[in-house]
Amino acid sequence: MILTRGQGGLFRYVLYGHAALAMAFLLLPIVFIALLSLGSSRWLAFPPPEWTLKWYQELAGDPRWAESLWLSLRLALCVTILSVLLGGAAAFALTRGRFRGRRLLKAFFVSPMIVPVVIVAIALYSFSLKLGLNGTFIGFVAGHLIIAVPFSVICVGNSLRAFDIALEQAAAICGASRLQTLRRVTIPVIAPGLMAAAIFSFLASWDEVVISIFMASPQLQTLPVRMWTSLRMDLSPVIAAVSTLLVLASMLLMLVLGLLLIRRAPK
Amino acid sequence: MGANIKRLLGAAIIAIGSAAGAAADESLTFTSWGGTTQDAQKASWADKFESETKVKVLQDGPTDYGKLKAMVDSGAVGWDVVDVEPDFAYQAAKMGLLEPLDFSVIDRTDIDPRFVFDHGIGSFYFSFVLGYNPDALGGNAPTSWVDLFDIKKFPGKRTFYKWASPGVLEIALLADGVAPDKLYPLDLDRAFAKLDSIKSDILWWGGGAESQQQLASGEAPLGMFWNGRIYALQKDGAKVDAVWNQNLATADFLVVPKGSKNKAAAMKFIALATSAQGQADLANATAYAPINLKSEGLLNKDLVPLLPSKHAESQITLDLDYWAEHRDEISKRWYDWQAK
Amino acid sequence: MKTAAASRTLHEAKPAWPAIAFLLVCFVLPVGALLLRSVTDPQWGLQNFAELLATGTYARVLFNTFLVAATVTLASLIVGYPLAWLIVMLPRRWQQLLLAILLMSMWTSLLARTYAWLVLLQKTGVINRLLMFLGVIDQPLALVNNLVGVVIGMTYIMLPFVVLPLRATLSSIDPALMHAGAICGASSFRLFRSVLLPLSLPGIGAAGLMVFVMSLGYYITPALLGGTSNMMLAELITQTVQSFLNWGLGAAAAVILLAATLLLYAVHMRYLDEAER
User: Fold this and answer.
1) Which of the following CATH numbers is that of domain B26-125+251-310: 3.40.190.10, 3.20.20.120, 3.30.750.24, 3.40.50.2000?
2) Cβ distance of C228 and B163 shorter than 8 Å
3) How far apart are CA C85 and CA C188, in angstroms?
């Protein structure tokens, strides 16, 4: 604890108040979306004239949303794994390696974030047309991976920088091989960085719209592409229903994981 | 890592394999804007085409001009018939991105001459109308484009089409008192000056759904809309209305990208889509008007009063040739003005 | 001597090779080809750049982009830093609750979140109606389709990107330092100002830079929540390549942004990024 109980006085309460407001801010749209998904107004009027489940029924009856969801999920998982591996390895080279041009290399890895996404989308699209990879799963993975890798490099890099190399040296002294050291010492300690890299990479792919619009084909439409088309063309609270279901699913997942971890913890 | 590579390779192989398999039978890709309009186009044209010719019609969308250009540039053209906006059709033709239409296959004798040229033919025609939300306006009803610029009598935001496209500038000029037959060439200075008078009250819509949400919620109690969108709102029970006085007629166009791999089938598809029956079927489903003059007799009687073709007295057709000539300079001025 | 250094460079950078190879093939090659069009499309020369800098529009849009990105970064840091600190301070159960709420907001689709803000912030939307009902205002405020809406929406999106890294930074600070300060009699505010803040500065710099850079190129949220008067660069480029089909001009705009950002990055690395020395 940085500020223990009984200390801090007013300052602590200011912090609490700030946090409460921030939480309200964070929750407002999510709750609003959930309420909209239950309202009968097609045009998202609030409060709605009636409450209804018809959007959820419509969702259940339309297999295209489930297909898009499944595609986005598979895609995001592939991208996450590859991103953490590639980006994490790159972060190792950046923090441990002693060579000139490290800064340049770091800027190189971050550059996909800097180039406006529509430029990346068109460039990649033209490129993939020549290779026949547009509208393919692998094309999607490549496109999303490009924007996910910078997150991995940054997050794992941050963790590695805070990592005390003495731990690895101690393990070596105790006779651990490099692989063992990596597996049992390094990775557990930088786990928060790896976790952050995984989360950001997953979300980068999951929420990606522009590149996906270009890469999409009638058979391969990710969830954001379907939602974007709906927002522009035919507005419908079905989007709100999709979004709410996903939030509920993730809450359930977190709950389950939380319970499992509690049960595992020996203390 | 190895397992993932195998998994990805497997997915790639399957994807490539199925693409190769599909190419074996003849097929055609029709691209439009998605939503209920494309659903109607599929039902009225694609399904019929498939049963008549045994050529499979794949649906893609939404139409994306960047994608189209990229396809034509790279030679890997995946779209065969594309529904595009009129000014784009003309511009793309000028830029050499389109195939000339084969009028030996497509019968243009009964087609409304306003909506056909060498490289494109009308998909359906529609009007920009003045839509308004009577509740949000407190019972006041506008009667012409002049009212769009009258903030005192009709307070609130007004919504306009966002992109540099025929419509907004003409409305501004008409509201400023320009006679319909003197609209072209467009006096850009005058139009922008008129728009400046209400600039802080302008809301922009980039897509049909946005325009509908803005009107239905009252965020923009009046504005310019595609007539079909107002119709859809009314069908849905929303209390909105349209003013047809001086409605501005224009059309979406069907074009064939240069280098299309299924040109012959594409021309046949367009011939069906623009036939009297094809156009009537679409009109009956969408309340957009047919571009085939012979479709009149095949229209659903109840729908007729809602069609742009029935509001022709004060209708003004947007001059697409003019826009084709001047689109670049107008666009530049338009976007510069918008960003101010 | 040179070859030894070069081969050592190659060797030391070995774990990064796969990432480098991937980015070179899938990113640098295609994007480089497109950016090259800024000087080759429609003819060789710098006309595209001249055209961009001739009218005030591009300069205005570029300025606006940096302004919005800076504002969003500042807002996110101001809202996010105390939140991160609190998360580190609180007992485990509260920590998990706050983190869960944060993650829930991240997990909600970007489009859904942005559109929800659009509807919430409209003149006829919930927030305005609530404020009028409470008597705080009598006319609805223009909270969307302008700069305000964009900042609110983007801060919302960026908040987790600030809180999560800052939490990692703050939790790695040795609590003993704060205790020592407290023992010496420093007030909690003084502790914050003289101990915590300086120690967390690198973390703030890193998180801030990440959010800033992300905000510069962002398309979705500014496009849905902004008006055309404060257009950001991503939308301008989209307009240029989609409406005008002028890829040369769009590429030129991207080149200028890239150059400006890399410059900023270089400044950051030189003066703020101590760890890389």
Assistant:
1) 3.40.190.10
2) no
3) 13
Q: What is the pLDDT of residues B111-140, one digit of tens each?
A: 998 899 999 999 998 999 999 999 888 888
- How far is residue A238's CA from residue B235's CA, in Å, rounded to a whole number? 19
What does DSSP assign to residue B44? I
Residue contact B219–C231, C-beta within 8 A: no
Please list the rounded mean pLDDT of every run of 10 residues in chain A (267 residues). Answer: 56 86 93 91 83 90 90 95 94 82 84 86 89 87 95 87 79 81 79 85 91 88 89 84 88 78 59
Q: What is this model's ipTM?
A: 0.85
Amino acid in the structure at residue C162: V
Name the CATH superfamily, with its identifier, for domain B126-250+315-338: Periplasmic binding protein-like II (3.40.190.10)
Q: Which chains touch C (3 or more CB pairs under 8 A)?
A: A, B
Token output for B175: 């509201």
CA distance C75 to C85: 16
**How much is the average pLDDT of B303-319?**
83
The residues spanned by each domain of chain B are: 26-125+251-310, 126-250+315-338
Residues 6 or more apart whose CB falls under 8 angstroms from that of A74 comprise: A137
| Residue where the block lists tokens 């496109």 | A143
Question: Do the Cβ atoms of C116 and A117 come within 8 Å?
Answer: no
How many domains is chain C partitioned into structurally?
1
Distance of CA A131 to the CA centre of its chain: 28
Q: Which two tokens stand for residue A237?
A: 């609270």
Task: Output the DSSP codes for C158-205.
Answer: HHHHHHHHHHHHHHTS-HHHHHHHHHTT--HHHHIIIIIHHHHHHHHH
Q: Which chain B residue's Cα is nearest to A215?
A: B67
DSSP B309: G
Question: Cβ distance B250 to B84 under 8 Å?
Answer: no
Q: Which of B120, B121, B176 is nearest to B148 (CA)?
A: B176
DSSP state of A184: I
Q: Which of A44, A137, A235 shows the shortest C-beta gap to B15? A: A137
Tally the domains of chain A.
Answer: 1
The answer to whether residues B230 and B238 touch, using CB atoms and an 8 Å cutoff, is: no
Q: Which residue has the higher pLDDT, B279 or A1?
A: B279
Q: Which domain holds residue A130?
A: 64-234
Q: Which of residues 146-175 of B touch C (CB under 8 A)?
A: 157, 162-164
Q: With an 8 Å Cβ cutoff, is B337 touching chain C?
A: no
Cis bond leading into B290, ω under 30°?
Answer: no
Contact A125 B67 (CB under 8 A): yes
Q: Do A122 and C247 touch (CB under 8 A)?
A: yes
Q: Is A90 within 8 Å of A101 (Cβ atoms)?
A: no
Interface mutation target, options C1, C115, C152, chain A, most CBs of A under 10 Å: C115
Task: Count B/C contacts: CB-CB distance under 8 Å.
Answer: 54
